Amino acid sequence: MTHSKPSFTSAILYLGLLSSLVTLALSAYALKYLEATKVGLFSNVATVVTILAGMFFLQEKLFYYHYIGIIAILAGTIGFNTVSKAHSRPEI
């Protein structure tokens, strides 16, 4: 089955070029200036932002498993930051 509609082709190009290639290039650029853990944490939070943007702008429905995933991502991010800050404090 071939898809010859321009909207299908443009969607594939958008997903392949803009979403994948550009975000990969920006992540590589960020690694020059930030720690790898911070870049990784930002990519996790970007997933939550994408889910919420889909809900608000595209009126997508979120189900219970979406909320569980959002909570898990945020809990992991907050937990990691809390633990890493506690370990990086100098002892008095």
Shape type: flat
Q: Between the first and last Cα atoms, what is the distance in angstroms?
A: 68 Å
Low-confidence stretches: none
Biggest beta-sheet profile: none
Our estimate of the beta-strand percent is under 5%
Number of domains: 2
Mean pLDDT: 80
Structural class: mainly alpha
Radius of gyration: 18 Å
> How many strand units?
0
Q: What helical percentage do the residues reach?
A: over 70%
**How many helical stretches?**
3
- Element order, helices and strands? HHH
What report would you give on this structure?
There is one protein chain. This protein has 92 residues and is mainly alpha-helical. The protein has two domains: 1-33; 34-92, no CATH class. The model has no long low-confidence stretch (mean pLDDT 80). It has three helices and no strands.
Task: Give a quick precis of the structure.
This protein has helices at residues 6-33, 36-57, 64-88. The protein has 92 residues and is mainly α.
What layout of secondary structure does this protein have?
Layout: H1 6-33, H2 36-57, H3 64-88
